[in-house]
């Protein structure tokens, strides 16, 4: 006859973010390595040369770290004041850095003393960069000027004084040695051509610009300032493409992932957001402990390095494929029970007599007990600690099944102090979970009914009961608040909804206005 | 009930087959059970219905084997007759008219020519008291015999199956209430045994059933509280003893000893068949989860088969090794039908909820249950007073790819549990697979739901008492692993009014939802297009016109109004004051069927929305309100030219009456066709007849005929003079054998050849020719044996060139004839 139907464990929809390829990709990093620097980390730059060392500018030093080292490989300390913007040249041989004392220094990566010193700015230099031909240096300073310097002669080539506020960011074109872009606190971005006296393009960001980034194709320019990240189309003469407002504090740094498909923005609100560059939707989000000032990605996204205001440098390395496989292997290496496989692929011969064996369906322990109507034992099994903690839905499903059979009260009754406190613990943990509330409220009522006579005999149980009461009271308050908010929202929606006259037929009486009530809370969905 | 000669309202099968205890025939090949006004004969191996014994004019209330003839059964009915049937041929042999409605029938081998029937005590039929009477069946050759020779045996018995014959028919035991009565035929005395009501610990001692041991003096009785008592020594009034067996937690519905008395079978609401060993009473075997509560148990006379009737209109046939071998399932009806009648677009089966938590697919054309679909997928606990999940709504989309079901469970004091489930049709398994479960789709009960008929979009709309209607869309999540699933797309409402009904237009471009007195019409982009209203009275049902009448929207309201709106002008086209209880649109034509209830009767009107005159109307269709109705498309279109029968050409209208009888309309042409097809299917065989069997059986018979020429060979020309001459003349006066032979052969051949040629079918000519050659070889051998002096031989034939045409023909005929008989003659 029909076999025993096992207890249905409902599959609840996963709350929170959905698992997308992006989340899988960006979650595939190890736990961060944290290094304490002397001051706020203002700039991080990766060398494009093979081991991909990176220069970290913090306070009056520049540290160069190897890809997996936690100690600096090299340190440049010859700064009189706070250093800024340590940048590698594209061949990885030279490093340039600005300083609060207005002097720009050029170092050989293997040396210690500055090769060249460029003097000319009158205030601190926050922006330095090499041009694409490797012979010039771009600097931007708080004296509102940006200058180009010749490395061999260490002379100033040109100076542009168009910005009307501090220049705090800038970048050079990787394709054209004459083109560079600067962003300033005067809310503008300017594109300069070294062959021309004046800026060739100006864009208004309308917030103090903190960071600029050129796409590898150099058709698009990204700027960050205030809470906004804006994308500009340079080929259309600096037309704004999109404006993203996903942070709630100033965005400080921008970066592109190695394939150019994802844009990362770091902000003082301690988040790093990752955008899809085709539709500019946020696909992932990292949280950090402090406000972020600088962010850099190693080539091939091997690591994400983030510098924060509290001087902590956080490095996340990508998990290597072996490690990943190990993880998967571990999960797969846990067979619950072994099947006797001898003769499994035996092909019956011609005159073999086949005896078909009924397929035995495997039942969970609580199901076996339910099948035998051992209700208390089934509840005990469902309340086993690992099941209770890891899979509360099973415990709740068994309770629901018992309730359906009308025997939940019997199953709950007759428990000793330890058992009861276990049960109460479970209730305290789960009764306010909206998925379980309907079942657990019934169970709680039954427990209170059954055990009201023994209240006061055990201090443990009494304490738990008090906790339960507090929990329920708090939950009631929450619900009330939520209902109030819902009411407010309804009014707002009602006022904002356009009123539309519905054509009423002449023969039938008019029935007032029509309005579809929109936006009722969606029901719980569950895929089978 | 018949208003028109051509259109009749007929009952459609699916009557209860679990009303009374079924009967297994002596050879265990057939199972007979009372089914409404007829007795059905099922094959116990193939589960097919072999015969339908029709003749009773009222409910059949019992069947028993005729103890003196194992090919016959008695059946009794509330129409006051006992009929004797030959079940192998399905023939009514005799009718005994008793004159009182009969409620049960019992027979015993030791009481020949007597049947014991339960009839009302007083002559008035409303009496609640029943008596067991012995009826002496008169021996008469007539078809209809009046049996007036009644003698009362027991007074005050229960009307159904609570009596049993004891060892060798010496006594009969009957139970009612708290009393067990044993009547001894020998001394015509009865002993009564009483039990206390026994209210402590909720024990209820009332008797429910009784069964007597066939070999020993032992009576087993079942009780309300689940106990079984075995009574012994009951021929003394005082010194009787009883022992108690207890396993059942609910009432014991039925008890039965096996023919040898080694086992006792019992069943109850737990739907577990318990087999108690008579000698070792603590040993028992179980057969759990049989489906519904067991109502009757029957055992075949040789003890090899048991069968149990279940409350869900099912008979399970069980082998004596406690293994289920076959299930005969009838249509489940009754109070429990909560879904609308729907038609599965794929199988054209009628779909309604049947067994608890299941949907049943019932083939209307074959009058057979196709399968049950488990909707709730939960272990059913057979216990009284439990609130179980019930399937309350079911809907198919137009292609039959999707099925939506709603199950709900109301529990005292706690909130309503509703699940909306969506099932996708799986081509591979040919059944519906669960795709999405939505728990609590609405805050209150779902009143109605319908699929959008538009081919572009798969959408379901549900309306609920919580004042909202929701649209559910199939969303394809191909990026995640789960595949397509359903999600809520839109929630709509209208002034917080409670919706009452919803309907899609035929092309799916409009959705009409009735909110109390107002009909709202929505576009697929969820814009409220218009509102229609015709107060007073809340809208009860809505229906869009089809095909040429698709511009009309029909609505019925509670205040006796049938309105028709024109959707192009958004105005009322017409309305009539009529109390329509049910409005149904034919999906294949413009026709609408409206069932109106008037003064306790239901009338039917069939009309087109665009025409003022109804196409067909029938007054007093049935008593009470028509509960549900559905148009089922026909397999083949009927060609009826009668004007008022044309609406039945494309589809057939089925409806459920207040008493949950499934009825339909049938026309004369259709009945003729059915009759013809049933004649075509009529086969003398006793095994189940299926079209497949017909095909295969015919083929096999032919094959048998081909492979077995012996059958023809046996037909020896017994009566011929030659044989007589040969056999009866004394040997000494006979001429020589060689002379005789040739003469004998010739005479025989010619005389029978003309007849044989006519008989032989053309297709067998090849075959017989082959045989001829064999036969000729034998002939030649025989001739050599006989001395070779035959009058004619091959040599002579060749040597004689001048043969006449007649001679030639004769020769050919001779050649064709089967000579094989000769060898058999010679062997003699």
Automatic annotation (TrEMBL), chain A:
GO cellular component: nucleolus
SMART domains: WD40
Name under which the protein is recorded: U3 small nucleolar RNA-associated protein 15 homolog
InterPro entries in the cross-refs: U3_snoRNA-assocProt_15_C, WD40/YVTN_repeat-like_dom_sf, WD40_repeat_CS, WD40_repeat_dom_sf, WD40_rpt
Assembly behavior: Part of the small subunit (SSU) processome, composed of more than 70 proteins and the RNA chaperone small nucleolar RNA (snoRNA) U3. May be a component of the proposed t-UTP subcomplex of the ribosomal small subunit (SSU) processome.
Source organism superkingdom: Eukaryota
Signal peptide: none
Ranges where the record places region Disordered: 500-528
Biological process according to GO: positive regulation of transcription by RNA polymerase I; rRNA processing
WD repeat copies, ranges: 118-159, 244-285
Boundaries of every U3 small nucleolar RNA-associated protein 15 C-terminal domain copy: 345-492
Record key words, sorted: Nucleus, Repeat, rRNA processing, WD repeat
Its job: Ribosome biogenesis factor. Involved in nucleolar processing of pre-18S ribosomal RNA. Required for optimal pre-ribosomal RNA transcription by RNA polymerase I. Part of the small subunit (SSU) processome, first precursor of the small eukaryotic ribosomal subunit. During the assembly of the SSU processome in the nucleolus, many ribosome biogenesis factors, an RNA chaperone and ribosomal proteins associate with the nascent pre-rRNA and work in concert to generate RNA folding, modifications, rearrangements and cleavage as well as targeted degradation of pre-ribosomal RNA by the RNA exosome.
Protein's cellular compartments: Nucleus, Nucleolus
CDD domains the record matches: WD40
TrEMBL record, chain B:
Acidic residues composition-biased segments: 760-776
Gene3D superfamilies: YVTN repeat-like/Quinoprotein amine dehydrogenase
The organism's taxonomic lineage, starting at the top: Eukaryota, Metazoa, Chordata, Craniata, Vertebrata
Localization of this protein: Nucleus, Nucleolus
InterPro entries referenced in this protein's UniProt entry, alphabetically: Beta-prop_WDR75_2nd, Quinoprotein_ADH-like_sf, WD40/YVTN_repeat-like_dom_sf, WD40_repeat_CS, WD40_repeat_dom_sf, WD40_rpt, WDR75
Protein name: WD repeat domain 75
Pfam family, one: Beta-prop_WDR75_1st
SMART domains: WD40 (SM00320)
Keyword S-adenosyl-L-methionine belongs to the record: no
Xref: PANTHER family: WD REPEAT-CONTAINING PROTEIN 75
Every WD repeat-containing protein 75 second beta-propeller domain range: 341-660
Highest taxon, organism lineage: Eukaryota
Keywords: Nucleus, Repeat, Ribosome biogenesis, rRNA processing, Transcription, WD repeat
Gene Ontology CC annotations of this record: small-subunit processome
One of the GO BP terms on file: positive regulation of transcription by RNA polymerase I
Annotated segments matching region Disordered: 755-801
GO terms for MF: RNA binding
Main location: nucleus
WD repeats: 53-95, 200-231, 245-276
Keyword Transmembrane helix among UniProt keywords: no
């Amino acid at each position: 006859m029909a076999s025993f139907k096992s207890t249905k464990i409902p599959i609840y929809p996963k709350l929170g973010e959905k698992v997308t390829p992006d989340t899988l990709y960006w979650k595939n990093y190890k736990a961060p390595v944290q290094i304490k620097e002397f001051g706020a980390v203002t700039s991080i730059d990766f060398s494009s040369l093979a081991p991909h060392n990176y220069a970290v500018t913090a306070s009056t030093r520049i540290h160069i770290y190897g890809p997996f080292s936690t100690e600096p490989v090299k340190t440049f300390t010859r700064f009189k004041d706070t250093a800024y913007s340590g940048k590698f040249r594209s061949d990885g041989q030279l490093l340039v850095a600005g300083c609060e004392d207005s002097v720009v220094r050029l170092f050989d990566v293997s040396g210690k003393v500055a090769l060249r010193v460029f003097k000319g700015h009158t205030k601190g230099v926050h922006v330095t960069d090499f041009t694409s031909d490797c012979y010039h240096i771009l600097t931007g300073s708080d004296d509102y000027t940006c200058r180009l310097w010749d490395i061999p002669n260490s002379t100033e080539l040109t100076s542009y004084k168009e910005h009307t506020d501090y220049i705090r960011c800038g970048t050079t074109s990787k394709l054209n040695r004459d083109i560079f872009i600067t962003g300033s606190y005067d809310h503008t971005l300017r594109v300069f051509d070294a062959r021309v006296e004046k800026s060739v393009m100006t864009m208004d960001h309308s917030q103090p610009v903190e960071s600029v980034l050129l796409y590898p194709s150099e058709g698009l320019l990204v700027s960050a300032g205030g809470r906004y990240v804006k994308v500009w189309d340079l080929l259309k003469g600096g037309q704004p493409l999109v404006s993203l407002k996903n942070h709630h504090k100033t965005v400080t740094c921008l970066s592109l992932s190695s394939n150019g498909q994802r844009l990362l923005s770091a902000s003082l609100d301690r988040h790093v957001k990752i955008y899809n560059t085709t539709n500019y939707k946020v696909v992932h989000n990292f949280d950090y402990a402090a406000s972020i000032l600088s962010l850099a990605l190693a080539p091939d996204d091997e690591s994400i390095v983030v510098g924060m205001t509290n001087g902590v440098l956080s490095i996340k390395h990508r998990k290597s494929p072996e490690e990943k496989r190990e993880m998967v292997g571990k999960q797969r290496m846990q067979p619950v029970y072994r099947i006797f496989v001898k003769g499994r692929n035996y092909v019956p011969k011609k005159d073999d007599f086949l005896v078909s064996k009924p397929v035995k369906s495997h039942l969970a322990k609580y199901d076996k007990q339910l099948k035998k109507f051992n209700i208390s034992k089934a509840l005990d099994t469902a309340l086993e600690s690992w099941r209770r903690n890891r899979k509360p839905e099973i415990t709740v499903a068994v309770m629901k099944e018992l309730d359906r059979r009308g025997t939940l009260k019997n199953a709950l009754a007759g428990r000793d102090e330890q058992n009861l406190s276990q049960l109460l613990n479970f209730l305290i943990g789960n009764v306010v979970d909206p998925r379980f509330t309907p079942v657990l409220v019934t169970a709680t009522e039954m427990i209170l009914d059954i055990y009201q006579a023994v209240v006061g005999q055990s201090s443990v149980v009494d304490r738990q009961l008090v906790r339960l009461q507090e929990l329920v009271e708090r939950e009631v308050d929450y619900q009330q608040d939520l209902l109030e908010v819902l009411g407010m929202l309804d009014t707002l929606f009602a006022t904002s909804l356009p009123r539309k006259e519905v054509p009423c037929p002449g023969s039938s009486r008019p029935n007032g206005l029509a309005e579809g009530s929109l936006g009722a809370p969606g029901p719980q969905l569950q895929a089978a | 009930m018949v208003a028109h000669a051509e259109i009749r309202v007929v009952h459609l099968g699916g009557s209860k087959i679990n009303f009374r205890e079924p009967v297994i025939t002596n050879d265990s090949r057939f199972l007979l059970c009372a089914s409404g006004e007829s007795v059905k004969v099922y094959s116990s191996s193939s589960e097919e219905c072999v015969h339908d014994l029709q003749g009773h004019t009222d409910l059949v209330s019992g069947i028993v084997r005729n103890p003196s003839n194992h090919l016959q059964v008695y059946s009794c009915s509330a129409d006051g007759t006992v009929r004797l049937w030959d079940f192998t041929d399905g023939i009514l042999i005799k009718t005994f008219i008793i004159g009182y409605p009969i409620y049960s029938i019992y027979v015993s081998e030791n009481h020949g020519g007597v049947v014991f029937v339960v009839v009302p005590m007083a002559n008035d039929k409303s009496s609640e008291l029943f008596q067991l009477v012995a009826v002496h069946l008169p021996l008469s050759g007539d078809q209809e015999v009046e049996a007036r020779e009644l003698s009362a045996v027991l007074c005050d018995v229960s009307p159904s199956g609570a009596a049993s014959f004891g060892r060798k028919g010496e006594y009969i035991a009957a139970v009612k209430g708290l009393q067990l009565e044993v009547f001894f035929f020998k001394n015509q005395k009865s002993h009564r045994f009483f039990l206390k009501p026994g209210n402590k610990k909720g024990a209820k001692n009332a008797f429910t059933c009784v069964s007597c041991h066939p070999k020993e003096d032992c009576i087993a009785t079942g009780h309300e509280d689940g106990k079984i008592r075995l009574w012994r020594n009951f021929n003394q009034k005082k010194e009787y003893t009883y022992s108690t067996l207890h396993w059942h937690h609910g009432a014991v519905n039925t008890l039965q000893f096996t023919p040898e008395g080694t086992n006792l079978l019992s069943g109850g609401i737990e739907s577990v068949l318990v087999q108690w060993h008579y000698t070792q009473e603590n040993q028992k075997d179980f057969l759990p989860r049989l489906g519904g509560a067991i109502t009757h148990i029957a055992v075949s006379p040789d003890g090899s088969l048991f069968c149990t009737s279940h409350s869900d209109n099912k008979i399970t046939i069980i082998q004596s090794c406690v293994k289920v071998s076959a299930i005969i399932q009838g249509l489940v009806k009754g109070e429990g039908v909560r879904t609308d009648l729907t038609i599965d677009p794929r199988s054209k089966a009628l779909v309604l909820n049947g067994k608890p938590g299941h949907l049943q697919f019932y083939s209307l054309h074959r009058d057979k249950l196709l399968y049950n679909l488990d909707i709730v997928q939960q272990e059913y606990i057979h216990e009284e007073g439990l609130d179980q999940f019930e399937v309350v709504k079911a809907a198919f989309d137009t292609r039959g790819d999707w099925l939506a079901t709603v199950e709900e469970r109301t529990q005292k004091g706690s909130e309503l549990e509703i699940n909306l489930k969506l099932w996708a049709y799986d081509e591979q398994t040919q059944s519906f697979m669960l795709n999405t479960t939505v728990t609590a789709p609405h805050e209150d009960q779902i009143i109605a739901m319908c699929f959008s008929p538009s081919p572009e979009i798969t959408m379901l709309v549900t309306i609920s008492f919580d004042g909202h209607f929701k649209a559910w869309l199939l969303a394809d999540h191909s990026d995640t692993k789960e595949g397509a699933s359903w999600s809520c797309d839109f929630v709509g409402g209208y002034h917080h009014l409670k919706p009452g009904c919803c309907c899609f237009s035929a092309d799916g471009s409009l959705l009409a939802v009735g909110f109390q007195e107002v009909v709202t019409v929505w576009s697929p982009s969820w814009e409220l297009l218009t509102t229609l209203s015709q107060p007073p009275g809340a809208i009860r049902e809505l229906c869009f016109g089809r095909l040429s009448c698709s511009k009309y929207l029909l609505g019925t309201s509670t205040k006796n109004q049938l309105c028709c709106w024109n959707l192009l002008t958004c105005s009322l086209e017409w309305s009539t004051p009529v109390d329509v209880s049910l409005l149904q649109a034919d999906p294949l034509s413009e026709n609408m069927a409206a069932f109106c209830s008037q003064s306790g009767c239901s009338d039917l009107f069939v009309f087109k929305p665009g025409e003022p005159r109804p196409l067909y109307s029938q007054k007093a269709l049935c008593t009470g309100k028509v509960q549900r109705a559905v148009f089922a498309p026909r397999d083949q279109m009927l060609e009826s030219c009668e004007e008022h029968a044309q609406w039945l050409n494309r589809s057939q209208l089925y409806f459920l009456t207040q008493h949950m009888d499934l009825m339909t309309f049938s026309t004369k042409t259709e009945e003729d066709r059915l009759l013809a097809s049933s004649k075509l299917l009529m086969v003398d065989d006793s095994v189940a007849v299926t079209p497949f069997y017909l095909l295969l059986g015919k083929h096999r018979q032919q094959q048998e005929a081909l492979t077995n020429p012996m059958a023809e060979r046996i037909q020896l020309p017994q009566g011929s003079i030659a044989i007589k001459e040969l056999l009866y003349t004394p040997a000494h006066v006979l001429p020589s054998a060689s002379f005789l032979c040739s003469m004998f052969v010739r005479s025989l051949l010619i005389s029978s050849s003309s007849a044989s040629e006519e008989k032989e079918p053309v297709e067998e000519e090849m075959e017989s020719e082959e045989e001829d050659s064999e036969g000729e070889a034998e002939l030649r051998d025989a001739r050599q044996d006989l001395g070779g002096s035959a009058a004619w031989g091959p040599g002579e034939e060749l040597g004689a060139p001048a043969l006449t045409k007649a001679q030639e023909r004769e020769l050919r005929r001779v050649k064709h004839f089967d000579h094989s008989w000769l060898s058999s003659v010679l062997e003699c």
